[in-house]
Amino acid sequence: MKRATLRDVAERAGVSHQTVSRVINAQGLVTVATRERVLEAIAALDYVPNGVARSLAAKRTLTLGVSVADIGSYAVGQVIAGAEDTARRHDLALVIGTVGLPDDAPDGAAWRSHLSLMLQRGIDGLILAWPSLPIDAGATLEWVASRVPLVTLSSRPDLPGVGTVSIDNRRGATEATAFLVGQGHRAIATIAGPAHWRASVTRLEGYRTALDAAGLRCDRALVARGGGWEPGDGRLAAARLLDGEEPFTAVFAQSDLLALGAIGAFRARGLRIPEDVAVMGYDDIPVAAHLDPPLTTMRQPIREEGVRAATLLIDAIAGAPTPADRRLMLPATLVVRQSVAPPAVTGRSVVAQAPAASGATGFPAKASTSPSMPAAVTAAPAPGPETTQG
Q1: Are residue 161 and residue 183 in the same domain, yes or no?
Q2: What is the rounded CA–CA span in Å between residue 378 and residue 390?
Q3: Is the distance from CB of 253 to CB of 225 less than 8 angstroms?
Q4: Lower Cβ count inside 10 Å, N or C end of the chain?
Q5: Model's pTM, two decimal places?
Q6: How far from 254 is each of 247, 336, 348, CA to CA, in Å?
Q7: Do 45 and 190 share a domain, yes or no?
Q8: pLDDT tens-digit profile of 240-287?
Q9: Is there a domain that residue 358 lies in?
């Protein structure tokens, strides 16, 4: 069956093809009666507007670009889902490009070539979902922003003319650590992500802020860094903590996957969660609620990041009166499950939790130099079913 054309619609409605175009693009003055006749003709003929022709007329491609480092990660998938859903609701398409960062640290030639290729696709705006930006990226990104609206996610917020959507990781980590303090823990370790990730830097800052606010010393021996964000990285970091000189009763793992690996390491040493070690995660990935025990964590609105970034681009393309370098900060939310409970030993210094002679070494068998729990801090009841605190 021959596909209906714009002129077929015009002939059936008894109007000019220019009038049909104005109805389709919601431009110009058209009477209500005429608009209804055109819409009825469109429905009767099952007419689908030619997107290429519309884009040529508007001098746009009706396409948004998303540049990512690792398309296989859960977080990136959620960002893309949010951006794509928003773009689709505005009759826009999404083009996804992977820069393929080696160890998340791109060399200049690779990422500059990638951005140039994205611009050559004729995109109307670009979302840059990289975990970190090269130190010398400023001039190039400002150049990109001078050609199309540009929004970065969770990276540098200090680039003029560039919009930023990020999650308040510093505040989220502060809240996570403060929750552990509120449960009575005074010796709190943390497992951080790669040092060059901005999220890792700000979460570590939040951890230190919470300890300082509680009058607790931030012991470098209780900070272990994973080489990445995967369970294997968490397992190795937790093993280093267990083999170290400082005992602890709680761990803030700065991603749920790090927490998953840490739990495996603790159990391999005969330690129970949360009776011997409380474990706090960060992200709230789907599996977090199904771990044993279910993981207490900070929920990141990752999909919402994609929604907000796409909305910023669409507003900029439409000429909305918003600053090109608008900054949006989204909050993380505490989700309380069963992996955190008050320390089993209260009112005195933390002691070793597993005998070194057993072969399954737990904490070093020496008294902690961490401050004792004040008498005013009482053991809170173990968390019940999942609750969220915003």
Answers
A1: no
A2: 24
A3: no
A4: N
A5: 0.73
A6: 19, 16, 28
A7: no
A8: 999 998 999 999 999 999 999 999 999 999 999 999 999 999 999 999
A9: yes
